[in-house]
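Reopening this one. Same input as before:
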Amino acid sequence: MTALRAVSAGFRAWGSQVEVTRPLADGAELKLRDRTLRVLHRPGHSPSDTVFLDESRSVLLAADHLIAHISSNPLLARPLGVEGDYEGPRPQALVTYMASLEQTRAMSLSLVLPGHGWPITDHAALIDERFRLHRRRAEKIRRLIADQPRTAHEIAQELWGNVAVTQAYLTLSEVLGHVDLLLADGLVLEHEQDGVVRFEGARE
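Same output, byte for byte:
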């Protein structure tokens, strides 16, 4: 736990505080010199993920919402506006992310400009591939859970072995995201005993 706190503090040191002078709301317009961008909230990769649509050019500035060469990792995080200890249900980052991708897939776009890598010219085909990828990963985890009840950490170890502590947050986010898909489909059950959460296959 001490090591994870140190890693978290190191990541936070990469950023700095800023004063927000103009909050942007979902659906609002951001007028620039020679173009207007539509603000669209697309939570999932993080609770505050936002993309910007140039409607006149059918171009989407997508940041980490959609990347051609890699699947964005929906990260575990408190809901927006929540400070300190969070006592509510676990936010379902991957479920939320896939709903956001559905919204983006329905858009008519000529070009998607991600925050990393090459431009995307067929966003619908790429999103369909992402959906297939997540379903395959969820099915692999379902088979592990059907074998015996497991914690998220135990599932991560089965999938990737003993990962570095710097990767623990990413791997647990990955596992829990796909477990949430299985929970939503009624394929696994979640049980807590003595503060430890385990997942097991649902009886047919």
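So the earlier flakiness isn't reproducible anymore. For the record, Strands lie at 29-31, 36-41, 50-54, 59-63, 111-114, 188-193, 196-201.
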